[in-house]
Structures are given as C-alpha cells and as structure tokens.
Fold P-type Cu(+) transporter.
Amino acid sequence: MLAIADQIKPTAPLTIYVLQSLGLRTILLTGDNVKTARAIANQVGIKTVYAEVLPTHKERFIASLKENKKTHGKIAMVGDGINDSPALARADVGIAVGTGTDVAVEAASIVLVRDELFDVVAAIMLSKKTVWRIRINFMFATIYNIIGIPIAAGILLPAGVQLMPWMASAAMALSSVSVVISSLLLRYFKKPKMQKYERDVRYRQWLLNKSTGIVVHRGIDNLPVNRSKSSILSSFKNSRLSQIVIESISAVKNAVMEEKKKATLFLNDEQTTNQNQKEEEIELQVTAL
C-alpha cells in the first residue's frame, strides 16, 4: 500500500493562532477535495473552509468579501501558486511566498523572501507599527507647527520674546529632522519570536480545541457539504453543468444514430452489388450454354 500526502508547514498552526489572536478572521480556499480540506483545517485550526474551488472562484469569493468592507474590513490573500494569482491581484493586500511561482509573485502586493509562513505575522505587525509611527509623526508635526508658527509670527513679542530669522529656519529644519529620526526607529523593529507564543498557555488550550467547529463548504455552490442526496441532486438538475451534460449526451446519441444510418446504407449497397454480380454470372453461364 502506497500513501501520498502533502504535509503542512510546521509553523502553520502557530501562524493561524497568532493571526486569530490579532482579531483576524482566517478562511481556507483550496482546490482539494472536501476530505483533504477538512484534514488540513483540523491540523491548522481554520474554522471556515471552502473546498473544490477553481481559480476564478477564489477571485469571485475575494470580490464578494470586498463588496461589504464595513463587515469584513480589509481583505488579505496568502498564496504561492498560479491558481492563486487572480485572488492575489483582487485582494486589498496580496501576500505571496517568495518560493512560489513567478505569476503569483507578480500579482502580489507583498512578497515574503523566505519560505516561512510565520513571516505573514511579522509583515502584519510591521505594517501596524508603520501606520502607528506615521500617525505619531503627523501628530507631532501638527502640534509643533501649531505652537511654532504663532511664536515665529511674534505672538510673544509683547513679552519680549522674539525669534530671529535664523532661529525660525533652524526650528523648521528641526521639525523635519525629528520626523525623519522618528521614522528611522522602524529599523529597530524585531520580528516576533515563535517561542514566545509556543510557551503561551492559551496557545496550548487552542491546540486542544482547534479541530472543533469546522464548517466545510463546496466552492462551486458555496453550500455546506453535509446536504442530503436529494438536495444535491436537485441542485445539480438546476445547474448549468447538468444542461451541458444533457446536451453532450444528446449530441453523442445523434452521432451514434448517424453512424448506424451510414452503416445500414453501406450494407444495403453491398448487398445490391453482390446481387448484381450474381445475376451477371448467371447471364454469362446461360450465354455460354
């Protein structure tokens, strides 16, 4: 007996846990069958799964989430294959693994240089830190100018405080330099360590319950897998796929009937030819007598 399996990355469960602890909703979109998708979800702890989806279905799903931004917020897509490239381009933020295909890398907004899934967490934390630093700089520059401009205009002149032109120029330069120095502090950003989360008690509790409450959908009809056979049959009858199958079967039947007609005509012609040959032979024999 030979068994083949696509092993998940060792850091995948920890990555999903940290993303969920950050308040992010995680969804699995895969082209694998339902059983494989459920097995992967059990290992990594993703509760919402869409299996048997095509590349166009992934893009359509991302587009449907983006239509309701008030509920879902910003949409990020992580992938590394050619079939992920349409969804990566459609998402607000597309994250591609550097070891993936060139098409996925070109379609993504962010490319992870290493083949390390936990770098997704580092990228999100770095982006949050960057936005926070931008807001701090904007607030500092606003307060600095609110205080500095009136002083430079001479509001404190009655009190004997006066800024010389070179002082005003130096103060303006100091404002720009302080913002630049504040931005350079991002260079000291440190990637979060996995050991910190692995020792967390909440992570261990999450590992025990990560395989509960998983809901698997089929990507084509976006309905739960545990439907009755009658509902599946009725939905198939009403689908475009059933019409294509019926049209294909009717076309095959027509082709078979045409071949039968041709075969019948050929046999009739052959029988007529044989009968004519026999009559000619009889006439020749009579003539010889």
